[in-house]
Amino acid sequence: MTRFLMTAAAFVLATSAAFADDIMASRYGNTTMTTDAKGVVTKIYYKSDGTFTGKQANQSFSGTWKLDASNMLCLTFSIALPGLTNPTCVQPARIRSAILGEETGVQ
What we know:
Elements: H1 2-14, E1 31-35, E2 41-46, E3 51-56, E4 59-67, E5 73-77, E6 88-90, H2 95-100, E7 105-106
Antiparallel strand pairs: 1-2, 1-7, 2-3, 3-4, 4-5, 5-6
């Protein structure tokens, strides 16, 4: 689950540079899909009102998101997920190489 969040955040912020006023704008109405090294697919759907929904295998989740003062993507889950802090904040620039250290597919 942690891998998916980090990868999803990296993709969201990396692909949003064209939207200077709202770096999340390219994600609204779209589903971000990640696949970790074990082949586990996670889908997350960001809404412009600061909420999100998602699913990984049989587990559905939801909550709120925000960008903090450092442009870190912070997700607060409605029900805390095992192994994750609430909120979970990720620094997009370091995700793929420094934290994951592996190839991860993101769409």
